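Q: How would the structure tokens look for this protein?
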Amino acid sequence: MSLFSDYQAHDAVGLAALVRRREVSPVELLESALARLEAVNPLINAVVDQFAEEAFAQARSLTGEEPLAGVPFLLKDLNIQVLGQRTSNGSRLWRDHRAVKDSTVTARYRAAGLLLFGFTNTAELGLACETAPALFGPTRNPWNVERSVGGSSGGAAAAVAAGIVPAAHATDGGGSIRIPSSNTGTFGLKPTRGRNPFGPDLGEGWNGLSVHHAITRSVRDSAALLDATHGPEPGDPYAAPRFDGRYLDLVERDPAPLRIAFQTVDHEGRAVDPAAAKAVTDAAALLESLGHRVEEASPGVDGAALKRATRIIVASNIANVLRAREEALGRPIEPDELEPITRLWAGESTRYSGADLARSIWTIHGLSRLFGRFFQRYDALLTPTFAAPPLPIGTVDMQSTDLDGYYETLRRYSAFTSVYNSAGIPAASVPFALADGLPVGVQIAAPLGEDGRVLQLAAQIERARPWAGLYPPLPA
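A: Here is the predicted structure in token form.
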């Protein structure tokens, strides 16, 4: 097997099939991933830490029958633990933190046969739709290194788009899986709230806004990874509606004809970049040609109420995380250990009361009810993923000292993604177009628990408009 072309020609499911047939070994796949990393990472800064020796040891211990045996895999450097390794959360404050256990999701990845060999770059504490932490510097878009890859799972998306790995772990609290996917021509599913566990130490992230999953080259890879990780663990405060089948089987067949709504303006009625709007109307036409009933409609979200609620939830949770870090360190946080926006988030929490946080949780639960009623009329909703093609690096700036300005910019571009975190429903970004050589995705959302429907629709689009052969202009 060539170190480059053959490795990149297969998705994760395809690589695992080669391993099962003994056509390639896990060690060879890991060597291929590391060679590709060496070739392209200096250009894009996607991977910020490696532990290849442990991955080689794991590669030699596999039976080859694990569902994703031998597939090289990277983890986002945020809210996930790998025994003995450092998780920095994209922050100087955690630069020396080392995990004393695996996260539950980490253990499930290992059991599936994935070779965990490094961490990808992320925004500090996941607080931007940009990946440019002061600790590691910006991740650059493989399609144009002057453009942002998005965030906060930007390192994961860049690593997948650049061919270092076919799939990578990611998290999403307001669009952090789907926005980088849109910006890099990759696929990204945010599962239903509670579909994947947050344990063993936490029950949820950001009062249920945040989830674990992945960014992938193919829809079937996302399905296979969800098969490997989904399901509650003992002590979870809640779980997604039960799914007893295999998502991987589900994506092999088209869905029955569906009633699909679409919208090209955000939930406050604001217009988006013409390229993002055109991608939606073109995708709607494609879905109609595939037998679905498509019409323009919107659920009628109260954008102002949602803005206040999510701001209170994020500020409160950031303050809590920082307080816990101070307790673990046994000392106050130094000013230069945090980026300016992170400090401002924590400071803002002092403006709110416990009653404010409780009201905010009421608000997002009310949004779940709103979408529940909307999806009694429609089976899915199609929107832009991001309000524009990839932005210049630094557009959403964590070094700013203007929290209001930063937050308005963040909301303007991520308006189509964050609403589904609040509602807890599944949504995915599907690669669909190129605008001046830059990727543009469209987003599919579905009712609570209908992750399979999102995956099926995305796979149907993938078959009708394949994107597997689209690669950014990087060295071969």
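The radius of gyration is 20 Å.

Residues 241 and 449 are 5 Å apart (CA to CA).

Upvote if useful.
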